[in-house]
Design a protein that fits this description.
The structure is a single chain. This protein is of the alpha+beta class. It has four domains: 112 residues, Beta-Lactamase (2-Layer Sandwich), CATH 3.30.450; 108 residues, PAS domain (Beta-Lactamase), CATH 3.30.450; 165 residues, Alpha-Beta Plaits; 251 residues, TIM Barrel (Alpha-Beta Barrel). 46% of the residues lie in helices and 25% in strands. It contains 26 helices and 27 strands. The strands form five sheets. An eight-stranded mixed barrel has the order 18-19-21-22-23-24-25-26, surrounded by four helices. Helix 11 packs across helix 12. The longest helix is centred in the first third of the chain and has 32 residues. The protein is elongated.
């Protein structure tokens, strides 16, 4: 019995040892294949066992570690961590985690995260220490990088990170400080919430083109804060790309440069502006004059320089004092600015000398001189009004010298000298006057002033009449006429439109003049309608740009038709391309409203301007009028012939009629007929004639039973 018990006890012990060995084998297998180093230490911290991972992690094998203290491999600053953790483990069960730097075989340190746990006997005493070690160097570096990045992100510069579609993902505190938008208000919105509206689409297109091409852009941008203030910033945008080269994010860094701009402006103001009047000084005037000269040569448009000197300023200074004289100069500056356009320049050269520079005047030199004269007269009147200087009041006047510039042979010094000389001639002529440097121009200005006075009188007294030029079809039958304006001048005789229309447009007299033409033409249509033999005739009249732009233009046409009783279907209004392109939508609206009652529209001088198919398709036209330059050249010039053929084909495609003006020879008529043009007007069929003569010619042809006007 005892032997049986002994055998059973032996079997149980053997079974226990077997299971223990199997368990140790399993744990060793786990330890041998773990990516973390697993070690067993004695209670003093010496290595008793080290798993193979120590070699892959630290380059050390078990034989190099057994019997060594774990603290031998700790960084000097981290040595104290081990004894403290072992003491805590001995005092109280549990797992403790420490992070320290451990020496590798190559002499470098790795950041290690270790877990320490005690193995206890039956009396609860720690007899061994189990330690695991995991290399966390990369994680520590990533955390450090994030920490540094977080610190760097919160710089004085505003930072904004967006997705590829412009959705804001993150902003820093500087962004909120500069823009006024908190992170919560900005994140999730598009970056265009900061747009100020100061930059046009071309600016942004160039910006994004540079980013797409180079990956970055930097420059000055005007943006808007949350409170509505517009401010300047220096912005750098960088594209962040993914592995495949696609843009995943955009990073914007910007700084508010309001103060810097203010400083730059202050420095510039000191260098280029007069401190008393705040007007540009001589230096800035010369710079702008140089640019204006270059622009004038390129655009062929004239500019003008007005040299202004105050009359008797020294007397005012001596009698009222220099303080009052300074007040006078400041008021003069304000009055000069009020007399010119925003694009013009008013400068003070010093003392009581001022200069006004006018740009973008007419290409015609005489017209440009007239425009400068209008501004000069405005300045003379403004500076002659009394001045309130504190408790005092005084009167002053000015002398103005004017010269034009636009010739590429001129230079700045010559222009200033010419204006200066002209100013002295004004003073010599009695002061409070204006004189042009060019004597011929002075005569032209005087002649123009006389013509303007006569024109006003002519409009008031009704000195204008209409002449009528026949319009025929391809069989030579009379279909209508064009009413052409003539001025019966009391001294100069009959004057053609090229002598006065441009002046009428500049002075605004074209509006009442155009209304008179419309009333006369409609009255004549009504009169013809009562005569059976000519009741079928149509009548075309030219409409000026100034007249067409009138807000009540449609009402004028309809009211005139109603008051005269004219048949709207017999009236054709001739318009030019240039007046329509100024505001195409307004033009279409006006034309459509008028066409609904039956009035036709003809596009005059077609073939010489910018003929866009888009507006031709949209405009409610009935007819294209081929320009006389094409008609005269087409029979002998292949290019002109090709254009003429294209016009006819285009008109047919759009359902429009074509009439050719300036037909003077049978050869021209035959060519036009060969390309399909069926309407003609020109000397071949009759010159413009006064009404009585025109109607007499109709009667004669009718009595002679002529079949046409050819």
């Amino acid at each position: 019995m005892k032997m049986a018990l002994a055998i059973d006890a032996f079997s149980e012990r053997e079974l226990f040892e077997t299971k223990l060995k199997e368990s140790e084998a399993r744990y060793r297998l786990l330890a041998d294949h773990s990516s973390d180093m697993i070690a067993v230490l004695d209670v003093e911290g010496r290595y008793l066992y080290v798993s193979p991972a120590s070699f892959s992690l630290f380059g050390q094998i078990q034989e190099e570690l057994l019997g060594r203290l774990a603290t031998d491999f700790a960084h000097p600053d981290d040595v104290a961590l081990f004894p403290a953790s072992i003491r805590e483990t001995q005092a109280e069960p549990g797992v403790r985690t420490i992070t320290f730097r451990r020496l590798r075989k190559d002499g470098q340190y790795s950041w290690v995260e270790s877990k320490i746990q005690g193995v206890r006997d039956a009396d609860n005493n720690v007899i061994q220490i189990i330690l695991t070690a995991r290399d966390i160097s990369e994680r520590r570096q990533a955390e450090e990088d994030r920490r540094v990045a977080a610190i760097a992100f919160e710089t004085q510069e505003g930072l904004i990170i967006s997705a590829a579609d412009g959705t804001i993902l993150r902003v820093n505190q500087a962004f909120s400080k500069i823009t006024g938008y908190s992170a919560a208000e900005a994140v999730g919105r598009k970056t265009n919430l900061l747009k100020s509206g100061r930059h046009d689409p071309v600016f942004y297109a160039a910006m994004w083109e540079a980013i797409a091409r180079t990956g970055t852009w930097h420059g000055e941008v005007w943006n808007r804060r949350k409170n509505g203030d517009v401010y300047p910033e220096w912005l750098t945008i960088t594209a962040v790309k993914g592995p495949a080269g696609e843009v995943t994010h955009y990073v914007g860094a910007f700084a508010d440069i309001t103060q810097r701009k203010a400083t730059e402006d202050a420095i510039e103001h000191l260098a280029f502006y007069d401190p008393l009047t705040r007007l540009p000084n001589r230096r800035l005037l010369q710079d702008r004059l140089q640019q204006a000269l270059a622009t004038s040569v390129r655009t062929k448009r004239e500019g003008a320089l007005l040299f202004i000197d105050l009359d008797n300023f020294k007397t005012i200074n001596d009698t009222l004092g220099h303080d009052q004289g300074d007040l006078l100069l400041q008021q003069v500056a304000l009055r000069l600015i009020a007399c010119v356009r925003e694009a013009d320049t008013v400068a003070r050269l010093g003392g009581d000398e001022f200069v006004v520079m006018l740009e973008d005047l007419s290409e015609n030199r005489n017209d440009a001189a007239a425009q400068a004269k209008v501004v000069g007269e405005k300045i003379l009147a403004a500076l002659h009004n009394p001045y309130k200087l504190g408790s005092s009041e005084c009167e002053s006047s000015s002398s103005i010298g004017v010269t034009l510039f636009g010739d590429h042979h001129q230079n700045m010094d010559e222009i200033l000298k010419q204006a200066d000389l002209a100013m002295y001639r004004s003073k010599a002529g009695g002061r409070n006057a204006m004189y042009f440097f060019n004597p011929e121009m002075q005569l032209a200005i005087a002649a123009r002033a006389t013509l303007e006075a006569d024109l006003r009188k002519a409009v008031r007294d009704g000195e204008f009449i209409l002449h009528y030029q026949p319009q025929v079809d391809n069989s030579g039958l009379l279909t209508g006429a064009e009413a052409l304006l003539r001025w019966q001048h009391s001294e100069r005789g009959v004057m053609f439109p090229d002598r006065f229309i441009s002046l009428a447009e500049e002075t605004g007299l074209i509006v009442p003049l155009g209304r008179r033409v419309l009333e006369t033409a409609c009255g004549q249509l009504a009169a013809w309608a009562r005569r059976q033999e000519i009741a079928h005739l149509t009548l075309a009249i030219n409409v000026s740009a100034g007249q067409f732009r009138q807000a009540d233009f449609v009402e004028q046409i309809l009211a005139t038709l109603d008051s005269t009783g004219a048949d709207p279907r017999k009236l054709t209004l001739e318009l030019t391309e240039s007046m329509l392109l100024d505001d195409i939508e307004d033009a279409i609206a006006k034309m459509s409203a008028i066409k609904t009652v039956g009035v036709s529209f003809s596009l005059d001088d077609f073939g010489t301007g910018y003929s866009s198919l888009t507006y031709l398709k949209n405009l409610p036209l009935s007819q294209l009028k081929m320009d006389r330059s094409l008609v005269s050249n087409a029979p002998s010039d292949p290019n002109a012939a090709a254009i003429a053929k294209t016009i006819v084909f285009l008109a047919q495609s759009l359902g429009l009629a074509v009439i050719a003006e300036g037909v003077e020879t049978e050869v021209q008529r035959e060519f036009l007929e060969s390309i399909g043009c069926r309407g003609y007007q020109g000397y071949l069929f009759g010159r413009p004639l006064p009404l009585e003569v025109f109607e007499d010619s109709l009667s004669q042809k009718s009595s002679s039973r002529s079949t046409g006007f050819k």
